[in-house]
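Posting this for the archive.
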Amino acid sequence: MKRYSTAEIAKIINGQLFQTEQPEYNTIDKITIDSRTISEFHNSMFFALISDRNDGHHYLKNAWNKGIRVFVISQLPADFISFKNSIFIKVANTLTALQKLAAFKRSGFSKEIIAITGSNGKTIIKEWLYDLLRGHFLIIRSPKSYNSQVGVPLSVWLLEEKHTLGIFESGISLPGEMEKLAQIIQPEIGIFTNIGPSHQENFDTVEQKIREKIKLFRNTKKLVFCSDQAKTFNIIHPFCQQNNIDEFKWSLTNKNSPIYIVPFKGESTTAFEANYKGHSYKFTIPFTDDSSIENACQCFAAILALNLNPQQFLTKFKTLSSVAMRLEIKQGINNSLLINDYYNSDINSLSIALSVMENQAKKKPPAKSCYPFRYQAIG
């Protein structure tokens, strides 16, 4: 990974440099925000982020004791001199500085970036696209579900010249947040999954939330979305027209849609026939729940948006697997099944999980168990 001098970083994030004695190192290629998880300290930089519940400035000494010698802070510690051989970069706001640095890193990346947002399915679509495309591209993607104001810049910072495709997910909980993430990711291709009630408490209407989320795509060239969802379509379609964005809209119900996909549910698999520009493509996934069907359609449309020949990837759909802590099915005690949806706890996610549960019951009802299913949603 490319290293940046602390002087260069200070200029990028509008920071003021302070140092004690002779710095132990002054080039950076790694970023950390949690003193508890520091494993590689050399050429690492600690951002002292401030949140409603915590303040990274309280852990500067912990980070120093673990070998960190470069810090981005908004206030110098009172015992500044005790941080031997260290460099401090003082900024007005450490989160803003982190986001500026990631945006700078992104601006030097010349290959395509895919950004994914919506209420459900972001992580699964990201991971499935990775599984489908990794033989064709050298992919960098968001770790886990790093889609927040902090997670997105940490993900984008991982971009390297060797990568040929980036896939990043993005989520918001408040109006005004998406513009910041859009400046960091700067996607060429967008995927809008769907809209649901998660984080709705901070938005007046569902329509407002859709309009906030699609700000991520204002400068994209192509946008993938389902045209069957009326509220989404009625906002996204004119948005694409106003911003000269090519629509890769797909439908399960409209035969006249540019991408028309027909699913055929089996006992444990779903077969698809997809029609696009006069060509028919057939593929199968090892799932039958509605959310997996929708996610697979998003992935197929994304392959088209990348100008790839779908025929090269059709067999790979058969090998797609569940994503850890996203509707993950595990064997429980007393012949029960545990459906783990660790990162979601809203009512729409519960509905999706119950759909998965119903399909599992149809496939193989457990024997001799009074409580055959458990649903776990922690988050």
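The two ends are 33 Å apart (CA to CA). The chain has ten helices and 19 strands.
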